[in-house]
Amino acid sequence: MIIAIDGPAGAGKTTISKALAARLGYTYIDTGALYRGFALKAQREGVDINDDARLKKMCDEISLYFKNDDGELRLYLDGADVTKEIREPQMSMMASDISARPMVREALLHVQRELGRERKVILEGRDIGTVVFPEADCKFYLDASVEERARRRHKDFVKAGKEVAIEKLIEDIKQRDHNDSSRKHAPLMQADDAIHIDSTNFSFDEVIDQLVTIIKNKQG
Ligand code: DC
């Protein structure tokens, strides 16, 4: 059983997917982390993402894999744990930019399909239900208003002791939405057979309950 959860930045995909995986006994895979890993390598090595030759070399050489550390998914880039580094705020837009390059998408397509061969898996991203696993058993498109998504992000930043203006978060989210939905290859969009869930006015628990009910019905 493959569960695909797609949607824009800050819609709660990560929190929801993690909780869902724990509740249902599934493996959870954060595909955005892979694009972030790619962006981190490009940044560290000073690779211009529009330089086809260097990007190709990077695609051929990069090593990206997850390790499960006591239920916590950690990303390894070229053998080193980069779980923390890929969450730096500037990595979001860099990941979005590099994810528009078809070469990068192609390289990660194989990685994601390989990861999806696990028996019970939840993958969250932008194109899981449309491109990576169009045959997924259960597809969700998780959304929320831009303001609500920014408010949730803001809460996370405050919790982490970081100060950032909510107006700036709204602008960043709008820009990333635009970037991810307007790219030519595998843009962010809802699959025809995905269930649309707008979580703006729902609590975390309400969304989880909604998803669990739908999945259990599908499982029969
Ligand atoms: O989910 P995230 O914010 O960590 O993702 C970072 C970027 O990676 C996102 O802005 C677009 C890209 N991405 C993608 O193109 N396809 C995916 N399946 C997952 C992420």
How does this structure look, described?
This protein is α/β, with parallel strands linked by helices. The protein has a single domain, classed as P-loop containing nucleotide triphosphate hydrolases (Rossmann fold), CATH 3.40.50. The chain contains nine helices and eight strands. The chain has helices spanning 13-24, 31-45, 52-61, 89-98, 102-115, 128-132, 146-159, 166-182, 204-219; strands spanning 2-6, 27-30, 64-69, 72-77, 80-81, 121-125, 138-143, 195-198. Strands 2-6-1-7-8 form a five-stranded parallel sheet. Strands 3-4-5 form a three-stranded antiparallel sheet, with helices on one face. Strand 4 (72-77) and strand 5 form a beta hairpin. It starts with a strand and ends with a helix. 36% of the residues are buried. 2'-deoxycytidine-5'-monophosphate binds at residues 9, 31-32, 35-36, 92, 95-96, 99, 125-128, 176, 180. 2'-deoxycytidine-5'-monophosphate (DC) binds at residues 9, 31-32, 35-36, 92, 95-96, 99, 125-128, 176, 180.
Layout of SSEs?
Blueprint: E1 2-6, H1 13-24, E2 27-30, H2 31-45, H3 52-61, E3 64-69, E4 72-77, E5 80-81, H4 89-98, H5 102-115, E6 121-125, H6 128-132, E7 138-143, H7 146-159, H8 166-182, E8 195-198, H9 204-219
Parallel strand pairs: 1-6, 1-7, 2-6, 7-8
Antiparallel strand pairs: 3-4, 4-5
Bound molecules: 2'-deoxycytidine-5'-monophosphate.
